[in-house]
Amino acid sequence: MGVRWAVVCAAIFLVVNGLGVAAAEPDSEPMGSNGPAALDGWRQTGARQESVFKVGEGVATRKVAGGSELVFRGVGQVPSDLSDQGWNHVGDPDSAQGYVFDAYEQSGRSSKLFRVTDPKGVVSDFTYTLEPGARFNNSWVAVSPDARWMLNGEWGQMSRFLIFAAPLLNPAAPAAGALARTGFLTLDTTVQNVQGCTFSGPTALLCTSDVPDPAGGTIPTLLEITWAGALDGRDRSAAVRTLGTLPQISTCRGTFESEGLDYDSASGNLTVVVNKPNLCKTQSTVYTFTRK
Fold first, then answer.
1. Signal peptide span per the entry (predicted)?
2. N or C: which end of the chain has fewer CB within 10 A?
């Protein structure tokens, strides 16, 4: 979510609840002027509404005893110990081997924070000090299927993602504290406003991107990014392909915003969060897709 409109959402939330006005749309969403998904290789299998304060930043699939569960991050969901330090935004999370990886930012700060929560609930914090050309934005984190490497993205126009050794899971990473970048994933096409990425295989990412619309606003879009050979921490070149537009369905008209996503290789489900526009801005739709 851009720095974006969390404060606006919070204000709307207070006003709506303070006045006792119901801002919720019906559970079965009528189609407005915007349309359903048009994605190459994926078909929609479900949709449900949730509060933006519960799910509006991102989602991860965490493995638990006997199966898995979805872990969401909502607008303003920053732990009090981190908010006391000035961190004020959480990005799209990821999970590997029961560990949950979160990305936190503060506007204008010279570093960004990654927090890893182990299966027992113990947290460890890792800080990346910005290098020349790096941005404070900490929009998302994605951990490779072998749980050895962590990718991270920023905001605006980007031509590369950052590569780190996955904290706590890769022996090359520190136990806690300072985290150093090991390489770049360089893209053959500039991408815009990437809100989240998830590994769909050892050499592929699916990413949500809010692409500027010539008519105004942005268009929630799904990207596929692929490269040759599993990551090893070093620089790698990747190709970007647009798979199409994400659903934009609401009784409210305006610009929708894509948020985080997660692909669960065990079930084959892709979960994507899309935030609604204008007076419906306190609501998100959680969509599920499977491959065609």
1. 1-23
2. C
| Domain interval for residue 280 | 42-291
Q: Largest Cα–Cα distance of the chain, in whole Å? A: 56
* Cα 261 to chain centroid, rounded: 6
Structural domain contains residue 14: no
User: Cα angle at 162 between 154 and 237, to 5 degrees?
Assistant: 115
The CATH number of the domain holding residue 272 is 2.115.10
28 within domain boundaries: no
- Classify 62 in phi/psi space as left (phi over 0), alpha (psi -120 to 50) or beta: beta
Q: Please state the φ and ψ torsions of residue 75, each to the nearest 5 degrees.
A: -60, 130
Tens-digit pLDDT profile for residues 122-169: 999 999 999 999 999 999 999 999 999 999 999 999 999 999 999 999
Q: What's this model's pTM, rounded to 2 decimal places?
A: 0.89
Mean pLDDT of 269-276: 98
Looking up tokens 């619309």 gives 213
Calpha distance 101→83 (Å, rounded): 17
Residues 116 and 124: beta-carbon distance below 8 Å: yes
Q: Give the three-class secondary structure for 125.
A: strand
**Phi, psi for residue 79 in degrees, rounded to 5:** -55, 145
Which two three-digit tokens encode residue 202? 């050892």
CA angle 16, 19, 23 (to 5 degrees): 35
Task: Tell me, yes or no, whether 124 lies in a domain.
Answer: yes
Q: How do residues 190-199 score in pLDDT, each as one tens digit? A: 999 999 999 9
